[in-house]
Specification:
With 286 residues, this protein is an all-alpha fold. It contains 11 helices and no strands.
């Protein structure tokens, strides 16, 4: 950049000096605009592929359409990971928080599933209470573990173009990996939503036990969270099945996500309005 500025500066100055005061002011302004334009754009012409942060639309597509993976050469090119490498790394980054999500949501699924089973008469109130007490154990710690893993994921980022952003000449391996990462991302979004609701219910249970929440209010909150939790767990499980249906970035079948057997208390049971006796006791349970 400095060479471009040094080469242009004197020439512009000579031209400004040869005109009248009025035209000289206009020309000086144009010189300043030209210098700013050179500073902003002129110095980056040879390093777009390696100098831009990965993940942007145009640089990513440029890398994908280039047989060598970038426009720059030499040592700088060797330091730039390929798009497939970036997608593979993204899948690996998603694995840890998704494993934590499965651990936490298996508890929430049992918790919600007990209510589903109770209102249809499949289990008794003492049995449902036993399930609820069981799912309280370690719930806060598991939610905290997921939140910590999620924060780490957000710091590192997921640097993989979506399938629609890939260049037409992209390899089948890259396309499969990109689809897998997109499915993992959908699963992660569904997990965040479901765990957010579960975390609120865990807090409500604690407030009820410590007398900071009335049984009536606790019942109202539980009914809302139960119904929302049913839908959100369904969405999470659907996203997890989509992951298992896509090949992983190493060519093997996707394995991240809950198995139906791990979350069988949810069981797909319908959640009807329920009887008054079942509903009325929620404040002393959840």
């Amino acid at each position: 950049m400095s060479e471009e500025q040094t080469g242009e500066g004197p020439a512009d100055g000579d031209r400004v000096g040869g005109v009248g005061p009025f035209l000289g002011g206009i020309a000086s302004g144009m010189v300043l605009v030209g210098i700013v334009w050179v500073i902003m754009t002129g110095g980056s012409g040879g390093s777009d592929a390696s100098g831009q942060q990965p993940g942007g639309g145009t640089p990513t597509q440029g890398v994908l359409s280039s047989p060598t993976g970038g426009a720059s050469g030499g040592a700088s090119q060797a330091a730039v990971p390929s798009t497939l490498d970036r997608c593979t790394a993204a899948a690996e980054r998603l694995a840890t928080p998704l494993q934590q999500a499965e651990t936490s949501l298996s508890q929430w699924s049992v918790h919600v599933g007990a209510m589903n089973q109770l209102v249809v008469g499949a289990i008794t109130l003492p049995q449902a209470t036993a399930f609820w007490n069981q799912t309280r154990v370690g719930a806060n710690r598991r939610i905290a573990d997921f939140d910590a893993a999620d924060r780490g994921l957000k710091r590192e980022g997921v640097d993989c173009p979506t399938p629609s952003m890939l260049a037409t000449r992209s390899s089948g391996e890259l396309r499969a990996c990109s689809r897998h990462v997109a499915a993992l991302t959908d699963e992660m979004d569904a997990a965040r939503t479901a765990i957010h609701t579960w975390g609120h219910h865990v807090q409500a249970m604690e407030m009820l036990r410590t007398g900071k929440l009335s049984p009536t209010r606790a019942t109202q909150m539980w009914l809302s969270m139960w119904q929302r939790g049913t839908d959100e767990i369904d969405a999470y499980r659907s996203a997890a099945r989509a992951v298992r249906a896509t090949p992983g970035c190493d060519g093997t079948a996707g394995t991240t996500g809950p198995s139906d057997s791990r979350m069988n208390m949810h069981g797909g049971s319908e959640a009807p309005s329920g009887s008054g006796s079942s509903m009325g006791s929620m404040g002393s349970m959840g």
